[in-house]
Amino acid sequence: MKSGTRDKAEGNMHQAKGRIKETAGKVVGNRDLETEGKVENLEGKVQENVGKAKKSVGK
User: Fold this and answer.
1) What single-letter DSSP state applies at residue 59?
2) pTM
3) CB atoms closer than 10 angstroms to residue 5
4) All residues at 6 or more sequence positions from 1 whose CB lies less than 8 Å from its CB, including other chains
């Protein structure tokens, strides 16, 4: 798998994990877990965009 495609896939995975953590944190009232989920979701978005950029450049 090319690195751009891998970055996009991993970014999507981190976004999904982040959404789950964020939702679980809201449900149980755990602000730390909710914040951790938001951060992981954001990191996933960044990684996905890096993958898109690499794919555009051809790496």
Assistant:
1) -
2) 0.86
3) 12
4) 9
